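Retro notes, item 3 of 5
We never archived the inputs for the guanosine-5'-triphosphate complex last cycle. Fixing that now. Sequence and ligand:
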Amino acid sequence: MARAYAELFAGLRVDPAKVLTTTFEANHEELVLVRDIELMSLCEHHLLPFKGVAHIGYIPGVDGRITGLSKLARLVEVFARRPQVQERLTSQIADLLMEKLAPRGVIVVLECEHMCMEMRGIRKVGARTVTSAVRGACQSDGKVRAEAMALINAR
Ligand SMILES: Nc1nc2c(ncn2[C@@H]2O[C@H](COP(=O)(O)OP(=O)(O)OP(=O)(O)O)[C@@H](O)[C@H]2O)c(=O)[nH]1
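Structure as it came back at the time:
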């Protein structure tokens, strides 16, 4: 039992800031977007799972440095493996990216289904909650935001 909880809360043992230490020179000034990163977390109210996908985009900063693509997924994992609410999970990912990469902009969109709404309480199976956190140019520039959203929604 203790081991099961240790696995569920594994993200608490990892310093999220250390996930984003891998950066590369790429002279890239355009949007980088990783879509459909699967995620599973635990609602902090009921300790029941919520799961879905994260879409993370950023526009590198003036130095043009990029981070490893897997690091974006690792960041989701670290913040998800702890009791959460979806809104906080979304903004924690965006804020750490802003802090560590100093990008021109960041967009994070999460789409999740919450077991606490499906198997108890209101019992609505399949309801999806969509949250977003936009920072920098993704927040202030409508064209940038529209491009990111179009890429996120392209299927
Ligand atoms: N930005 C970018 N990153 C890439 C590309 N191809 C591979 N990578 C990433 O390059 C990074 C290399 O990071 P390292 O920490 O040196 O390698 P690693 O230990 O294998 O990293 P993990 O994949 O996180 O286990 C990884 O995050 C890869 O996902 C690419 O085309 N663009």
